[in-house]
Write a structure and sequence with these properties.
about 65% helix, mainly alpha, about 50 residues, single chain
């Protein structure tokens, strides 16, 4: 689980995301929260562009 969490954080940071939608740093999120953000953040970025 720790590896999955680290990979999700790394991938989001590569995409330019360093905070969750609610403003918390990615490293403060649980694995479940990271999985949601991994899907939602890129979607929101696409919609806003």
């Amino acid at each position: 689980m720790l590896l999955r969490r680290a990979i999700l954080i790394q991938e989001l940071e590569r995409q330019g995301f360093f905070e969750a939608r609610d403003g918390r740093p990615l490293r403060k999120l649980t694995l479940q929260e990271l999985e949601v953000e991994y899907v939602r953040l890129p979607e929101l970025k696409e919609v806003r562009s």
